[in-house]
Amino acid sequence: MMDKNKFLEKMNIKLKLLIYNYEYQILILASIMSGLLIVHLSNKYFLHTNLYYAVFFFGFFVSFLGFVLEYVLKHFKKKAIETSFTFFLQDLSREYKSTNNLSISLNNITTSNVYGSIDTEIKRIANRVSWGDDFENALSGVNETIKSPIISHTLILLKTFKESSIPLDRVLLNISKDISIFKEERQKKKYFLNLYYLSIVLFVIFLVVILFVNIILGNNFLWYADQDLITRIFFDNFLLYMAIILSIFISFIMFAIKEESSFNFIKYIFVFFILTILIFQIAVPKPDAESVLIDTITYMNRNQLDLVNISDVIALKSISSKYILDKTYSNNLYFLPFDKSECGISCAEYAIFVPDAVFFDFEIRKSDIDFVVLYRES
Hints:
By secondary structure, the chain is α+β, with helices and mostly antiparallel strands. The chain is built from twelve helices and six strands. The protein has a four-stranded mixed sheet, with helices on one face. A two-stranded antiparallel ribbon has the order 2-4. Strand 5 (358-367) and strand 6 (370-377) form a beta hairpin. Helix 2 (23-45) packs antiparallel against helix 3 (52-99), helix 3 crosses helix 4 (102-110) and helix 11 packs parallel to helix 12. It starts with a helix and ends with a strand.
């Protein structure tokens, strides 16, 4: 009979340990099984009713509820550990000093229930120690699910002082004091890490603003101009230089926050430089001949210009007068080679065929809302 009672007691302890060690896995498994059961019932009994979709999606919601609850519970327990674990160690140190027995000290502490969300974890530690488990192992077992940096730091210090002659009550008290310093250092690191990532976010925001300004204001400039005017290319390059200077400034801030080596500063500059160039290459309009003609004609309409000459414009594809007209809302547009300029409209062309990349010189003449574009290879 005594052997049977001992066997049942051991099995009870093993069952409790199993639940303690795998409570979140059990919660998730129960959630998934419950959700699948609801989905099955919805397909079996609600398939042809108005409630089918409501019950079906409720089953999916229940399936994922375990993961949500796991995250929420761990989050609140981590917060509770940050605020209460120091007091737990101080109380344990005081109890151990008076009892000189860790198991009794833990059992005395668990009766107070003053540690918020981690009262359950402390009771588990007390139970495991009363069953003969080591305090470090019990603490480590609890931390396997919560993954608190404060408990991890405590375990490191306990292992460090394990072989020392310092009494356990003094060790626990010193660890509780060290945790306060550790929390301050973590808060500083977190603050500077937030600044580090904020710098990256600000760089992205400023880059988007610069590109937005380029798109909004770029059409106010000619791509090429013989007059003493600011051109679109100059404007684009000016914004690009601003973005590069901004990237160097952000690189310096990130380097200063992390207090890294000079090599990392150069690495940041290189990465941001490549990123800036790539984004400008993708987002900023290119001075292709067709785009240049569209922007130039739009500029001429806006500023009442009758004649504009532009040189050395690259054409990467054939140029269509219909496409340009659709973009500029003009009446007619004709192309004429320079050597046929005297021929007039009778020699007009409606497209310039470009089999390979070639540079052109253009002279754009405006008459009312009609345009004649004279062209020749540069």
